[in-house]
Amino acid sequence: MRIGPMKQRILARHPSDLTTDWAQRVIGRNHPNVMVSGVDIRSVDTGTTTRVRLEVMHDGPGNLPRQWFVKLPSLAWRARLITALPRLLHTEVRFYNEAAQGMPIAMPDVLAAQSAPGRGAILVLADVAESGAISGQPGDILTDAQALLVVRQLARLHARFWNKADFMRTYQWLAGPVRRLEDRLGAALAVPLMRRGLRCAGHLVPRKLHKLAVRYARQRARAMRFLSSAPPTLVHHDCHPGNLFWNETQPGLLDWQLVRFGEGISDVAYLLATSLTPETRRNHETRLIAAYAEALQDNGITEIELGHLLQRYRAHLAYPFEAMVVSLAVGGMMKLENNHELIRRTAAAVDDLDAFSALPI
User: Fold this and answer.
1) What is the Cα–Cα distance from 70 to 112, expressed in whole angstroms?
2) Cβ distance 31 to 61 under 8 Å?
3) Using CA atoms, how far apart are residues 290 and 220, in angstroms rounded to an integer?
4) Which of 52, 54, 91, 299 has its CA 20 to 30 A from that of 44?
5) In what order do the strands lie in the sheet with 134-135?
């Protein structure tokens, strides 16, 4: 896709590129009379992407954000390598440009989102902190009451796009060649990455799960087909606590790099496995899944049977476990202590519910 000169000029590869002139070009796209007088980089965090928090000084109106959150390709070479071929940041840019306005869930306001083949991608968002919201961290622990709020929001999101053929035709790129490439790469690398991740995790994963996890990795393509055999909707696919933000008691979702069509309960499984302590999850997961089913019904989705939903939830627990173990194997995807904690939580969920036995492997 060919892009014009103005669009090309806001792409950046490194935090040092986020200068006053760069910010002026971003603001000038929609506010040509606003002048930028300075940029202050407040923090730089590197994981699957490089995330930069900025304060931008300008003479614009009060509702024009001064705190920005910028996503660039990762400065960590391993993370950049594993995310480059599936074009994760490019996908998030396209999502914000084409689909984000229709989302029935809180999201950051987008200031600019651009990508170009071979040139990179950049996403410039209003930092949710400016409105008083608090961004989550991957190691955060939710209460059951907080989890209930997120589950209900996920149900609203999933119900809006549940089995909607017209939406899937319009946004067929969400299941297009890039996602198919991601699936093929996942299957090809599943066994070596699972083995390496289990070695690195050591005692964090009960020994009895090691053989089952490697068997799952060998049969990953078959498992993914099974997990996709349900009425599709739009799913976030990465609902760990670090991708949440909270405006008072209202949750919102960040980081839409992995957005796709899938089964709604997969987001719930990811959320509960990563964000709750094992004790809280054991005590409340059935009630939370029942609340999800009730919220779907409240939003017009009536073909829900709780027993079936619980079985699908069990099966989908395998993926957040895989994601956290593979993140450890690759390295640099998140802070090590957070990665370890999420492995503990997801391994406990897989073990408690014998998740691998719910898959045809």
Assistant:
1) 9
2) no
3) 28
4) 91
5) 134-135, 244-247, 250-253
Domains of the chain: 5-131 (3.30.200), 134-358 (3.90.1200)
With both helix axes pointing from N to C terminus, report the angle between 207-218 and 318-330 in degrees, rounded to the nearest 10: 90
The answer to whether 49 touches 72, Cβ cutoff 8 Å, is yes
Q: For residues 96 and 81, is the Cβ–Cβ distance under 8 A?
A: no
Please state, in angstroms and as integers, the Cα–Cα distance from residue 271 to each residue in 183, 253, 341, following that order: 21, 11, 14
> Which of 227, 209, 195 shows the shortest CA–CA distance to 350?
209
Residue appearing with tokens 């990508």: 115
Helix (H/G/I), strand (E/B), else coil: 36? strand
Cut 0.90: pTM above it: yes
Q: What would you measure as the largest C-alpha separation in the chain, in angstroms? A: 64
**Residue 30 CB contacts under 8 Å (≥ 6 apart), including other chains:** none
| CA pair distance 255, 138, nearest whole angstrom | 12
Q: Show the tokens assigned to 25.
A: 């070009």
pLDDT, one tens digit per residue, over 36-59 is 999 999 999 999 999 999 999 999
Question: Residue length, the chain?
Answer: 361
Structure confidence by residue, pLDDT tens digits, 282-330:
999 999 999 999 999 999 999 899 999 999 999 999 999 999 999 999 9
Q: At 43, phi and psi to the nearest 5? A: -160, 155
Cα separations in angstroms, 309 against 198, 294, 304, 305, 331? 29, 12, 7, 6, 34
Instruction: State whether the Cα torsion 225-229-231-236 is positive or negative.
Output: negative
Separation of alpha carbons 195 and 193, rounded Å: 5
pLDDT digits (tens, 9 = 90+) for 176-203: 887 888 888 888 999 999 999 999 999 9
Query: Half-sphere exposure (CA, 13 Å, Cβ side) for 60?
Result: 21
